[in-house]
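Aim 2 progress update. The chain analyzed this quarter is reproduced below.
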Amino acid sequence: MAMRRRAGGEFNPEEMGEGGGLNVVNLIDMFVIIIIFLLKSYSASTEANVTVSPKLTLPISSTDKEIKDFVNVSVTKDEIIVDKKVVARIIDGQIEGVPPQKLLIPALYDELEKRKERILKIQAYNPDVEFKGEINLVGHKEIPFSIVKKVMFTAGQAGFSEFKFVTQKE
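Predicted structure tokens:
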């Protein structure tokens, strides 16, 4: 059926019949495909979201490597923080509730286990997420090595064995 134009160049809607209307199902399909494409191709910034506490003075380094977004463990002069949650206090260079000869920090271990379980649950539903046991260690430049050793030992026991030390760029 040939459609005739009106005098003003428009099509006569009465001649279009049932097949000439707008098909909403096709539009919805198109929008769903566009949304899926945008969600799949969306890539967050390569910079990690590492919040440095005002109580923290980072060591200086000349490295050019970028920080990736892993679990963040911050060690200030007076507390141990996992992703903005204080898990242990440090008093006079000793971790509160942990004997000096003991390496495992129970509160830190429990929190890291929770983070690992959360990542593994996400991994079960999203193949792009993979638990690699990586951790950003943000430490005050004046904390004793004994505390760093305990934090690293505890993280290793919880399954986090890849450490990225966060430093301030020179």
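Helices lie at 13-16, 24-41, 106-125, 145-157. The longest strand covers residues 85-91. These observations will guide the mutagenesis experiments scheduled for the next reporting period.
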